[in-house]
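quick one before i forget lol
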Amino acid sequence: MTGNSYYYRKLHSLLGVIPVGFFLIEHLLTNYEAFRGGAEGHQGFVDKIHWLNDLPLILLLEIVGIGLPILYHGIYGLFVAFQSRSNVSNYGYFRNLMFTLQRVTGVITLIFIIWHVFETRIQVALGNVTHDELGVVMHDIFTNPLFFTLYAIGVISAVFHFSNGMWSFLVSWGITVGPRAQKVSTFVWLGVFVVMSVMFILTMTAFTDPQFQDTSVLDMNK
């Protein structure tokens, strides 16, 4: 495996952007519909879910285009995390802190994604809930203070892992090669981290609205 480690790492890096990044951004945009509030937010959230699940070959896309790449990225990421060592003399304290947090948040994110998919997509596949009831599922999760806290940790970890991973991706693929470009990139992706984290937390708070308890508010305009 040593001789091919360069290519494994490049693939791992690429899959951290596509489709893991797509998975995160798609969830942000879909769930942010809930922030519209009340019955309108509930309806918008469910409409987005139906739109996604009506796409052609959606199951194949989920498995081959999202599931397997995330699985590879997660498993190889664990391998890298337990083998990597910080290097303060070469990169300084801040970059080594980011390096360490990248590994820690990677483990948290993998656990979080497994939990989230089990609570949502797997439950739909098993017939325990419908797509229209996912808003109720999220409401039940976020009105539980413990689960809300765990979700917040998972979401912030995922956003950090993506944002800091994008900084590393741009460096490793030769896009930001100089100190100035890397410094600018640091501020850009720090901004992305803050904005996405705030949007996710606002969305989680929106799901606590009592309107999400009742699916009878759906299709209110029909």
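fyi The helical segments are 5-17, 20-31, 38-53, 58-83, 88-125, 134-142, 145-172, 179-206.
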